[in-house]
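One such given next:

>
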Amino acid sequence: MKEAVLYEKYKRNSVRCRLCSHRCTIEPSERGICGVRQNNKEGTLYSLVYGIVCATNIDPIEKKPLFHVYPGSRSFSIATVGCNFTCTFCQNHEISQMPKLTGKIAGRDVTPEEIVDACIHSGSQTIAYTYTEPTVYFEFALDTAKIAHEKGIKNVFVTNGYMTEEALETIEGYLDAANCDLKSFSDDFYKERCGARLKPVLNSLKKMKAMGVWLEVTTLLIPALNDGESELRQIAEFICSLGIDTPWHISRFHPQYKMLDVSPTPWESIERAFRIGKEIGLKYVYTGNVPGEAGENTHCANCGELLIERYGFFVRNNNLKNGTDCPTCGARLDGLLIS
């Protein structure tokens, strides 16, 4: 265990966590909503997952999905158990919900230095804190990110965006990119389906953009729950307000976890969302979980030239000139690119 960052001590040994927007008040010997931060009997908050990693993989960066961060590169991806959401459609519920459902903390011991060394050995250019919610293992992510930066490795979060402003300010300068879910534009959806609220997610998106973090946004379209035209327009308009260069990934739902009775997203819904994103003015709109569709490709926002051709998570052709520019008109592709 490691003492947590971002918490306050209260009377009678209770504490208030300031890491995520739940801002849990945690009584002695109890855990927060995430299930991995525990107040001991004396009023000290600890991270139960520091250095206890349940997953390490070498993934294509496109799997995050991050299409504008070193396209075609590898990302050394890690996770611990735990999450501050309770999404009924979670595809990684076995590890994200484990501490809350079973009380267990599974994984193997590893140090930040070992993670960075493994990343370098794998030839990866980034470390992705992913699979579960990186906010809940923030202390380990932060220590790893600092060492990674010293070695010239970029750090990326795949996140639900529920961290506090204080958390983002603490990792500022070490977090280079993020793919953040914007699951809906309905507070009721967030409350009923995720155990959270909408506004903190919107605030985090604005904050990350203001900090200079390269940001891409993903929305999983679930039939009859968040795929109405009005809501899709609200989502697209908000993303546009962050900057028209912010990529929007529209992902197809497949039955998961507690939503096995919901059908996969019709292709027509994906097409409608794609069209809305382009109509609103976003430069980069992508479709996900439908390999082989043209919506996976990156085109020049200036002249329309095909820049990067993909199939699923894999780059088939990268036509960028010098790794950054359109070969036809010379316009630079937005993102963190190989120069």
Remarks:
- The domain at 52-318 is CATH 3.20.20.70 (TIM Barrel).
- The longest strand covers residues 214-221.
